[in-house]
Amino acid sequence: MGTSSVFPILTATVFFLALVFPLLTSGEGGFTHDCAYAGANLTDRHHWIGIYCLNDDVDIYGFNYSMLDLDRCIGNNAGQLVPYENGNYSGSCTNCTFLHDKSLHLSCLCWNMDSKLVNSTLDLNGTLYDSNGAVGCYSFLGNKSWEPEPDP
User: Fold this and answer.
1) DSSP labels, 73-112
2) Predicted confidence (pLDDT) per residue in 100-148, tens digit
């Protein structure tokens, strides 16, 4: 078998993998693949998300509870929620809630450049990640425990 007969097979294989690989690696992906939303504390003073994330301890296949201050991860850019390190979105956004479907979205009313409140939604799957059971963004990692701390 000469190289001329191998080339079309190799080309077809590479083309097939180029089409199929994104389908295999996409889907839920991101932190929603390894983490489950467990609640939030979205008040005037607190902007925390609580998540159960898969840790790297394969012996127990365990999940850790992790909390992260979203002000470290999200900003407001002219009325739009955006991933932004130390963005402090809560200083210019209000009435925030989480929307949960195949991904997890943060939805808020944010001040825009015209001094008007506009609705904005951010898919957190592209902003947050799981690091051995701790939810994180940028260089920040949330705390990690086996379960949430009880409410006072």
Assistant:
1) TEEEETTEEEE-TT-BGGGTEEEEEEEESSSEEEEEEEE-
2) 887 889 999 999 999 999 999 999 998 999 998 899 999 999 988 766 6
For residue 37, give the CATH number of its domain: 2.30.60.10
Number of compact structural domains in the chain: 1
d(CA 112, CA 136): 27
| Closest among 86, 87, 84, 102 to 33, alpha carbons compared | 102
pTM: 0.73
Q: Are 71 and 90 in contact (CB under 8 A)?
A: yes
Q: Is residue 10 part of a domain?
A: no
pLDDT (tens digit, 9 = 90+) per residue, 30-41? 677 788 887 777
